[in-house]
Amino acid sequence: MFLKIKNLNASIDSTKILNDFSLNVEEGEIHAIMGPNGSGKSTLANVIAGNEDYTIDSGEIIFKDKNIFDFNIEERSHLGLFLAFQYPIEIPGVNITPFLRAALNSKLKNNNEKEIDNLNFSKLLREKASQLGIDIEMLKRPLNVGFSGGEKKRYEILQMSILNPALSIFDETDSGLDIDALKIVTDGISNLKNKNNSFIIITHYRKLLDYIKPDYVHVMKEGKIIKSGDKSLAEKIESEGYKNFWYYESWRNLF
Ligand code: ADP
Ligand code: MG
Q: Nearest ligand to the C-alpha of residue 19?
């Protein structure tokens, strides 16, 4: 099993958020997670990534055959986990190019691979940037500082394509994006996708899923998945809204 989350209970400031949450993801799969605000989607993303603001009360997360309970954020990233933030933070004073090179080298070093020198990294970065339509000038700027919504997304995708993660989690990366920026995200994911890597896409929008074509769609409510299906589930939610969706689901369950 590539990623196995079993009966995970997690809380923040002693408020229980994830409630016996379970999910299995195989290599090469795209899973979409939907659900109303407050259902625990961002908590799930943060807990998988290893954000220490959250407390795991019980349950397990097995990633690439390792129980990652004791792994910190950096160790999880070295294993191939990547979290794209809902609201990327600005880091003044830290420029993109040296930051990404340090991140990649730290990963290579951890995997006992040869580190990449300045020259070859610049080449790699320029190549990836031009594929994503990123202006070379942007690579000299500090992380996210003064970036537009679309530029922040481009940068997230650039970071992902440099680190080449085994499992990428997108937490509402689509929120507030215009159609061009949405295309950057979906094209970036399509370009990176292969049979060995997987994606968890947290979203409210069916439109995004039309481009990305997830293998599974899950609906989360009160800290757990209450329904799984294919893309048609996203269509149903869009047409019915969550309220009617819950209503019809509970009605259907009577039979
Ligand atoms: P979603 O991403 O599905 O909207 P979240 O994971 O962000 O949901 O939040 C789940 C619940 O956790 C919400 O009810 C939210 O109010 C609560 N929550 C988030 N952060 C904190 C916090 N620091 N203290 C207490 N409750 C929190
Ligand atoms: Mg959220």
A: 1
Calculate how far, in angstroms, residue 202's C-alpha sits from the geometric centre of ligand 2: 8
The Cα–Cα gap between 191 and 80 comes to 17
pLDDT tens-digit series, residues 93-133 = 899 999 999 999 999 999 999 999 999 999 999 999 988 88
Place of tokens 């949450």: 21
**Would you state the torsion angle of the CA atoms of residues 97, 98, 99, 100, taken in this order, to the nearest 10 degrees?**
50
β-strand pairing of 216-221 with 224-229: antiparallel
Tokens encoding 80: 């191939």
Which H or E element spans position 238?
Answer: helix 231-252
Which atom of ligand 1 is closest in space to residue 35's alpha carbon? 3
Locus of tokens 């190019």: 97
- Residues enclosing ligand 1, CB less than 6 A? 12-13, 15, 17, 35, 37-43
pTM value is: 0.92
Ligand 2 centre to CA of 245 (Å) is: 20
Q: State the Cα–Cα distance between residues 41 and 110, nearest whole angstrom.
A: 30
Q: Evaluate whether 212 touches 37 at the Cβ level (below 8 Å).
A: no
Which ligand has the minimum distance to the alpha carbon of residue 46? 1
Give the 3-state secondary structure of residue 24. strand
Query: And the tokens for 38?
Result: 């407050």
